[in-house]
């Protein structure tokens, strides 16, 4: 047997004592003696001839169940795909506590007659069209206020619960969905606590990002809700994606995978079957989105337009009215606006925000590197002002403006309930803490629209979709209000007209032109060891390597296979190195 040791990521030969014979198999977690101490390991091979000249030692202890063989194979693929140690993925795929109950595969991957009845309605046509689209993932574009759980129920009705995996972007949403399925009579287990039940393959498995590694021996179907959400991507290295892992699992098992999103990004839709509701239904599933044009406003007039003040009073003058104001004070960019006409300084090549070029007196785009003179493109003025924002100051001023005490919410504030708060001011974290609102106002949406990374537009539309879900459908009367100095931006047009294609088309053209995913692969290297590693990659000749800033390099390849092969071919330096495959801030 050859367990994989987390501490040094190597394989060693060990034998299984007779007392452990029934407890140890492929995927089992064990303890081994290594250099005088016991360390954790996984069994990844068996019936392996001993390495010549090596004394085979006995395993020290069994630590219970681990990933089944198909997930072991998937972990090896992921280690190659995201240039990370296999132990990172084996750890995610293992239970948090010791599980010793024997795994039963009875009924796994077999249709079950105990599935729920069809919920009927439009979900029937959506699922039918998605399943008939041929091999590969199918994308269901579903407006924010429409009930995605009906699509889940319809899929389970078609396949039965055995071997079905459902992912949600947050623990709250996963828990709500599990409750809904249970009420519908569907056997369901919620990860990670339900790891043992999931390993039997009988119930529907529901969970967040880590549930992509659930111990199902074979998937019969999978569905990912809000597949666009950044929560499905691991921020720590290796930077794997639960969406990609699930798609690969379904490809191997020949199972359908449905990606549900109100605003699917190009990286999901390219080459996939895309189905949606009628335009009338989709439009009703989005609220009214009002754009407040601040191009003519003096930057010194502050954050609050007259239209915003009227909208806040209209909501908060009602005893039950609730409003949320979003301001991204932790953004990584300071926007520049013309001191004469108020127009934002934007790149003429990719539309990104411009910043002062440290090497001279011009302006540089942090997205594509384009440099141009520090002159307003609208009025030729050379007087530019930096727009500064802050959540705390905004909360104080809104309290004075409305007479309602504003509650400040950021990612670092107390996560207590906000159900009684009538006015909330915060970063985008507030959108995940609230369950309902009559008005969501983006005080400065331009920080999201012009963030210095490709994909910023798709991320901004996702925020608007999240806000739309809080205020409900158009007939419900809720409203999303955005203040901007770029009122003609494709993101805002897509939200106003409830048509994500208005953003998807130009976004696809831009990515195709510049060679960004899905039309290429991008990796970012960071840390003291990045230069040495970049030199090794450049010597291969199969990838393009460029320096972005000190200790930060960008690597481009024609596709993910070429990128993964290149990253695996170059030895890692001893100095600290972070490899971000599919970097989101490229």
CATH homolog superfamily of the largest domain: P-loop containing nucleotide triphosphate hydrolases
Q: Which CATH architecture of the largest domain?
A: 3-Layer(aba) Sandwich
Q: Sketch the major β-sheet.
A: 7 strands, parallel
Q: Order of strands across the widest beta sheet? A: 9-10-8-11-12-7-13
End-to-end separation in angstroms reads: 42 Å
Strand content: 15-25%
CATH topology of the largest domain: Rossmann fold
Amount of helix: 25-40%
Q: Please give the CATH class of the largest domain.
A: Alpha Beta
Number of separate domains: 4
Specify Rg, calculated over alpha carbons. Answer: 26 Å
Give unreliable regions as ranges: 1-9, 105-113
Shape: globular
Number of strands: 28
Number of helices: 18
User: What structural category arises from helix and sheet content?
Assistant: alpha/beta
Q: Summarize model confidence as the mean pLDDT.
A: 87
């Amino acid at each position: 047997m050859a367990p994989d040791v987390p501490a040094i990521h190597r394989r060693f030969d060990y034998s299984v004592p007779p007392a452990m014979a029934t407890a140890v198999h492929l995927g089992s977690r064990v303890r081994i003696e290594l250099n005088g101490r016991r360390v954790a390991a996984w069994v990844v091979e068996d019936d392996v001839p001993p390495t010549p000249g090596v004394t085979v030692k006995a395993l020290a202890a069994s630590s219970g169940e681990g990933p089944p063989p198909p997930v072991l194979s998937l972990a090896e693929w992921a280690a190659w795909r995201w240039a990370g140690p296999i132990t990172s993925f084996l750890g995610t795929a293992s239970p948090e506590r010791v599980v010793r109950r024997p795994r039963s595969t009875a009924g796994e991957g077999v249709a079950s007659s105990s599935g729920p009845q069809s919920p009927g309605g439009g979900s029937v046509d959506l699922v039918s069209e998605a399943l008939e689209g041929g091999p590969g993932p199918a994308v269901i574009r579903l407006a924010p206020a429409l009930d995605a759980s009906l699509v889940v129920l319809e899929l389970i009705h078609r396949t039965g619960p055995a071997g079905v995996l459902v992912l949600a972007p947050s623990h709250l949403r996963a828990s709500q969905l599990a409750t809904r399925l249970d009420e519908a009579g569907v056997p369901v287990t919620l990860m990670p606590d339900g790891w043992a039940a999931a390993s039997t393959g009988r119930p529907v498995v529901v969970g967040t990002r880590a549930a992509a590694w659930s111990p199902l021996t074979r998937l019969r179907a999978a569905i990912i809700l809000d597949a666009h959400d950044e929560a499905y991507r691991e921020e720590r290295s290796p930077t794997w994606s639960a969406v990609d892992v699930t798609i690969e699992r379904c490809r191997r098992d020949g199972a359908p995978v449905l990606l549900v999103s109100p605003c699917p990004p190009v990286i999901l839709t390219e080459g996939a079957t895309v189905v949606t509701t009628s335009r009338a239904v989709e439009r009703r599933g989005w609220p009214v989105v009002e754009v407040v044009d601040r191009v003519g406003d003096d930057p010194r007039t502050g954050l609050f337009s007259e239209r915003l003040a009227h909208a806040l009073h209209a909501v908060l003058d009602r005893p039950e009215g609730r409003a949320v104001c979003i301001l991204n004070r932790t953004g990584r960019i300071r926007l520049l606006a013309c001191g004469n006409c108020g127009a934002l300084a934007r790149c003429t090549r990719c539309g990104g925000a411009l910043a002062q070029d440290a090497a001279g007196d011009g302006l540089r785009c942090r997205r594509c590197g384009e440099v141009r003179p520090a002159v307003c493109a609208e009025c030729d003025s050379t007087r530019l002002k930096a727009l500064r924002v802050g959540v705390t100051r905004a909360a104080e001023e809104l309290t004075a403006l409305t007479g309602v005490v504003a509650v400040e919410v950021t990612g670092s504030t107390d996560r207590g309930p906000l159900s009684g708060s009538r006015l909330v001011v915060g970063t985008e974290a507030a959108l995940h803490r609230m369950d309902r609102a009559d008005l969501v106002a983006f005080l400065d949406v331009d920080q999201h629209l012009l963030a210095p990374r490709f994909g910023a537009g798709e991320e901004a539309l996702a925020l608007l979709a999240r806000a739309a879900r809080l205020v409900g459908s158009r007939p419900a009367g809720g409203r999303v209000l955005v203040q901007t100095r770029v009122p003609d931006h494709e993101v805002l047009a897509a939200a106003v007209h409830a048509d994500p294609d208005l953003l998807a088309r130009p976004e696809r053209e831009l990515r195709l032109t510049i060679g960004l995913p899905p039309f290429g692969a991008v990796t970012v290297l960071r840390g003291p060891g990045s230069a040495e590693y970049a030199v090794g990659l450049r010597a291969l000749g199969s990838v393009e390597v460029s320096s972005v800033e000190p200790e930060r390099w960008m690597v481009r390849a024609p596709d993910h296979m070429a990128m993964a092969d290149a990253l695996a071919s170059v030895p890692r330096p001893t100095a600290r190195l972070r490899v971000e495959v599919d970097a989101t801030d490229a």
